[in-house]
Amino acid sequence: MREVFCEVSNPRRFEKVVAMAAHWLGQLSHRVSMLAVAAQGVMDVKEHPIHTILADFAISLENLASTLKKLQKELENQSPLSPIRFQHLKIETEMTSVERLVMALKTQSQLSLLLSYPFLLTKLHSYRENLSRDFESIIQAVVCSGVVKQQVCQTQQHLKEGPPKLGPKEQAALDSLDMIIEGSTPQKCKELAEQVAEYMSLDLSQVAFADQLAEVKKNIGKAEIFDDTIFPKYLHNCVKVLEKGLAFQEEPAACDDDILSDPTMPPSSEGHIKEVFAPTPPLSSFICPITRQVMKDPVQVSSGQTYERSAIEQWFEGGETTCPLGVKLKNTKVKPNHALRQSISEWRERNYVVRLHIAESRLRSSQPNQQLRGARDIIAVCEEDPVNKNEASSRKMIPLLIQLANHPDTSSTLREHCFNALAALAHGHQENQDTLVCEGVMNVLVRSLRNYDEAEPAIKLLKILSSTPKTAEMICRMPDAVLLLVTFLGHEKEELVISVKSVLVNLPTTDKIVVHMAEANLLIPLATRLVEGEKESKILMAKTLARLKHMPESSKILASSQDTITALTNMTKSRDADEVNAAIGALENLSKAPRVGTVISACSGLEVLVKLLTSQASVETKITASRVVANVLAAVGDEWPQSEDRDADIDNYLDTFIMLISSSARPTTNALVQSHLLQGLFSLVKGRDTGEVTREMLLRRNVFSVLTPHFKDSRLETRRDSLRLVSSLSRKHGAEAWLAISIQCGTLKFLVDMLSAEEITENEELDAARIISHLPAEDQNLTITLAQQFNIVPHLVHHLSSKNQSLQEACLGALVRFTTPETLDLQKQLADMGVIPALVAFLDSRRPRTKIHAAQALANFSRSSSRLIRPVAPNKCWQCFAPTPITCNLHGSLCSVKSTYCLLEAEAIPPLVTIVAEDKEKVAEAALEALYTLVEDERHSERGCNVLHQANALRTIISKLPNGTPRSQEISICICEKFLGIPHYQHALGASAQMHIIAIAQQAPPSRTKEIAGKILNQLELLGSLVGSNSNIFQQSSVSAS
């Protein structure tokens, strides 16, 4: 029990508790108000009794919500006169139950709500009492004014009031529900059904009433509205009585023309039916006093009273020791009432005969409504007692139903009921199933499969019939039967799909059927045939797998068990080329799903496929096999199957791949095979699990010398994938790549020409730019060769405006080498081409590497600014009236972007500071390098500090000081040294910086960063005030700094 409690002696605690309680009352008031609106909207029909009682309940809830709101205001103004003890878990639990009930009622049909009225009335009365009780506990915690007390009393009174009075029409309908007993005579059941239908403004003969009744029956199992086990039984009893009334025909057809007027109907064995006898009502002794239904297993208690066994046992299990009628019992033992059970059995049998007689007469009628009732009658009697199936069959009802379903004028609804009646007769009755097949039901069912609306009952009947092997074979032989069934595997109804799969599983697994099932995405039979079938079957199954290109990935995974993959792998070892090609084609299609690639590798499939590439197989076979290899390597690169020989396996594969890729291979390997192997190598290089070991093994094999000759290959596939692999490897091994490129005559020029060649694809252009950007930047001869001999700079600048951001990034990375202070002429060329504003714009890119390259280039430009500035000459005497030129705040001279590369003039400082504050460590490091150039030169150091201070850069740099890379920390501490060497910055910023600098001095390893930190702390005169180990650290730093 959750409780809020506060004594007067603790005023602060009291105020807090009062605020919490008032807030909770406000929330509860809103919740009750919303529930009242929901209850009001359950039923739109105002005359419906459910609407009447829910509307009254909603008014009670509205009154309760209003009162709770006023109590909230009273509580907010309450003074600490007495302790507060406030319990509110019970009312919240009760509200949750009411909300769940209202939401459940919204999903019910009009008929279902009407039938549930008695239970709902009891449930709402219980809710009213519980809410009133819980409301009382709330009132006791609040001191109310007289007006509020009066409203509280009115609310309680309204909650305790009984249900509202109903109109005569509503009351009559509810009174009829009280008379519902399972053993009621058909005439009585018909009268009750008519009263219910009339109240709902429907005619008993209308299909709408029957449909609503069928819907209620269908949802009986889901009837959990009242959390009561009795309610579903009561609902089932009501439906049973109404169905009996719906099916009852008081008088036979008026004339002979009304019966057997359809010439297609066979004559009855008993001649024309002149009259229909009504079933006899049950004796009162047949009815259980608890369930009010005819008993199935009557038992006597010690008082001599008879009950249904399950009902009385449940009564005793609840702890009762008296008879439900109030008689005290000696014990709770029960004994079977065999005589009564025999009497009930004989009564049922007599009534079944009469009901089947009525059903037959209705089926032979020409009126669709009567025929519909006849089909329902058969379903009902078969469900009540399976023995009735024999009697129905002996009356020739099976051919009667089949002919009725086959008639062209029969409606879809009637045909559906005919199929359902036939299913009821056939379920669990082999003789009736054989009769159905002999009477030609299969043709009717297959014809109905072509009609989407009629297919569901037909499939359910086929599910029953297909359990017999002979019938299953017949289904297979029928034209289009399997194909039509397969089309329903994608149906939205899950139950229908399950029925179709059950039918297909029952069918004999011929190759043709298995292929049809696979085409409909039912692959388990195909996988089984692939593992267990004969050679020809296996080839057909493998070809089918290869042909189904649009198979969902989930289906590929489902079909690719270890047994399936092992079977396909073994097929690739065959000497039969057709079998090998079929298996490889299947593996190629399946391996497109990454998880399947892992299974292939685990089943030694990769080893078999690699061997196949060096065999005497056809070129087409090798191309497909190499594609499978590429798919498998893409799957296992991130997670290689656990094996102690992983490195040895990869080493062996690389030997084969390098041999096949090499341009010196004889005979020359097919371009597509080389392309697929290069793709596989790329996957291994990029893989989380295999990347490091693969790169090491490839470099040991001098892979760049193998790949660079392919740059000039006329075959697009080989050239494209070689460039991509070299682009990936050269990122960390640019020197090795440059060594191979320099040896191959004309390769560097070819890479440069690719940046402007029209016949080159965009991906090739991108990889060429990346390779150039990865070449060692410290090689000045290479820089001069690229700039002067191959004139690469204009091409790189041109691509900075490309829409391809990856190409922009690669060309920007290649340009960085041309922005160093050592290449002042190239800097001038780039500045004149407008590169510096473009670099500033790239600082706002979403790509981290682009921002790194831009910051690096700007740092290079900024380091040259000091050499390019010129001091402003003082005015001559004759120029005394001339305006004073505006100088740069950073350099104190006339600066511009193109002439001095000034970062302040380029407006690069704010985005650089933003990068330091927000971006990842490596990106922030590059931005710090650029910012450090502003204070690096002692001549402009103070001006640079002023500019950075105006951009609020120092606080950002200090806050990031402990978390950066070692280089970032070194740059940051150097900038701090510049700032704190200026007196007014030392006084203004020293206190905020000292803790971060102390952390660096303590944590950093012996380095320049630690030395500078100690030097700064000496400047701040902090070393003398520190003791212990920290003081020793600072002293060591100070000594090393001095």
From TrEMBL:
InterPro entries reported in the protein's UniProt record: ARM-like, ARM-type_fold, Armadillo, RING-Ubox_PUB, U-box_domain_protein, Ubox_domain, Znf_RING/FYVE/PHD
Gene3D superfamilies tied to this protein: Leucine-rich Repeat Variant, Zinc/RING finger domain, C3HC4 (zinc finger)
A Pfam entry, by short name: U-box
Enzyme class: transferase
PROSITE patterns assigned to the protein according to its UniProt record, in alphabetical order: U_BOX (PS51698)
Pathway(s) the chain acts in: Protein modification; protein ubiquitination
Name of the featured protein: RING-type E3 ubiquitin transferase
Record gene name: LOC112274776
